[in-house]
Amino acid sequence: SSSGWFGITLPPAAAAGALSVFAGGLVSSRFIWGFLLTRFELRRSFVAYGLISALSVVVLMAIPPKAIVILPMMGVMGALLGGAGILHSVVWPVYFGRNNLGTIRGLTLPVSALGRALGPLIVAALFDITGSYDAGFRLFVVWYLIAALAMLFAKKPTPPQSRQAILQSSA
């Protein structure tokens, strides 16, 4: 049960170490995810991110809540957050172009922020109802899988024609 994770008390040095491992995973993974994007199609990288994220939550739920497990899990979670930053910064211009990127991001970021704000509230409500965080963690797994599936079936973007090419083709 994942609920046991929230009863663990760490000494301050161990908690600082866990945060350092998280930060190390976050920073170092940006280079790894960037390299992967040069080798693999963006869509497939995004699918891999969603599947690895879902798997990491499943593993977190399955392993016994012991302090020794926190360090590797924090490294994985940091690496995934670093990957999210890279993937999200690349996916928008690739799929929607750069011309209207500011408008597109301006419209989507508030929706994304709302989702990040509501996530903890939904998980807290599920905990209040069930007495466990398992339902909330399962919900995260489902969302990661839905995102991976959606990206798997997303059509590969076709580059827009330049204005010059459009004018020449109509002449």
Describe it for me?
This protein has 171 residues and is an all-alpha fold. The protein contains 6 helices and no strands.
User: Could you give the order of the helices and strands?
Assistant: HHHHHH
Tally of contiguous helical segments: 6
Helix percentage: over 70%
The count of strands amounts to 0
Spans of at least 5 consecutive residues with low confidence: none
First-last Cα distance: 67 Å
Gyration radius (Cα, Å) is 20 Å
Overall shape: it is elongated
- The residue-averaged pLDDT reads 86
Largest sheet: none
From the helix content, strand content and strand pairing, which structural class follows?
Answer: mainly alpha
Percentage of residues in strands: under 5%
List the keywords:
mainly alpha, elongated, single chain, 6 helices, 171 residues
Summed up:
By secondary structure, this protein is mainly α.
Draw up the topology in text.
Elements: H1 12-39, H2 42-62, H3 67-96, H4 101-130, H5 134-153, H6 163-170
Helix pairs in contact: 1-3, 2-3, 2-5, 4-5
